[in-house]
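Annex B. Sample input.
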Amino acid sequence: MISKLLSYKNKIFIIILFLFSIIINQFYGYRGAFPIDSFLHFDSAYRILNGENSFSDFWTVSGPAIDYIQAIFFYILGISWSSYVFHASLFNALLTITTFFVLKEFKLKTNFCFLYAFLFSILAYPTSGTPFVDHHSAFFSLMGIYSLLLAINNKKKIYWILIPIFLGLAFLSKQVPAAYIILSTSFVLVFYSLKNKKFEYLKYCFVSSIAFIIFILIFGNFQGIKISSFIDQYILYPQTIGAERFENFNFTFRGVIGHFKFIYLSLIPILFIYIKKNIGRKRQAYDDENFSLLILILFTFSLILHQLLTKNQTFIFFLIPLLTAFSHISLNNIKFKFKRLSYIVIIFICVFAAIKYHLRFNEGRKFHEMSHVNFDLAVKAEKIDKKLSRLNWITPEFSEKPNEEVMIINEIKTYLNDDNRIKMLITNYKFFSAILDEKLFSPSWAFTDDGTTHPVKNNKYTKEYRDLMIKIIKKNKIQVIYIAGTLDNRHIYNYIDKQCFNEIKIFENLKSYELKNCNDINN
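Annex B, continued. Sample output.
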């Protein structure tokens, strides 16, 4: 397959796509920061690189696969903002090139493959710029979907084997949307095998799944991660969050339909052809093309469902060039009037939507809550530390005075650096361990007040989090806990009695909690 694709023209297109998809993500990865999201895997990857582990050394509700992958990037390229962003940029490039190849396999003309892959690269990872759980989960899932599409199209064993591996990595990046896509993919796999009476396809997927699970169990055991900790933190606790969001879901036309209008428009030809092939034409029903269309439809609605339930900023507009490309492919396979006009319309929709969402989410950095930020006010992040070089520092909270925030961070940095005690730091500036080159034993990978990142008071799993926090304090002989930034003392007192601490306000954005002898810690 590769030899046929690598003509001179294809090579030029591949080089352009690879370089462009890296450069565009690098550019926007340096454009401002939303600390809790932008740095989500920065310190945790550093901690893993220095011998700590997810689940056993800090509460991990999602993203362990990303932490370990980022630790590899830090190991090879050094601990820096550039190597952190490059993780997402390389992922963007590999996805873009894979998209180009997949479209070629479905007989789309090379120029159109290039156009759709180019637009895909703009709307894929640059919306975040930095490694992020939703993106990795969706894109590993997309790789699984590509494997399934190619498996049905080519019947090659390797693609059936790759499906569970990519979907497993998606689940270990974030449980959803991966879980929705795993369920829909499993349905299609079983349906396809039964319809074609080719059960060896299920056998390949089953053996690959077992091998992947065994590898993860061996790796977890080697890392000292208990299965019970993984199940509590990664499987059971997130269900308490998901159940609450499902109960509070509010259907509105604008939220469910209007917000995703360009995705639906891109999906219309696929839906039309799928319905047409399944009504009154039994002989053609459930051929390979039909299964491919069904896979794309289920994948699309899985991602939309995820966006509706999580209520995060939208990141799935990369579906527009992807669905438009497969709509183009599907239209190639049928005869009807105005085919040329249809191509023009769907390409126009795709280009228009790509420009629209590029300006809103890449230029405007909406995904990281920076729509109203004046980026001309940004300051160089090397003022904080050389490890953050090339990052233009400006955040939503200090959008009009980034220098003041840099000054606050440097005050915190200096104070922590001067304190030689063994300390725990609770903050959403998730880079202090890395820039101080010191273990700071944060009990959670991040901190929110709504329970998204760790159990809050009265949650079913609050005791498990409390036990982990006390275990970290005892094991590492913590002498003082610091809370930095805008977080308050609930992140300590909700779990350990306040009588165990001597609370001191150092300055506005830093408080210390010196540990005293008490039953909560000593028992």
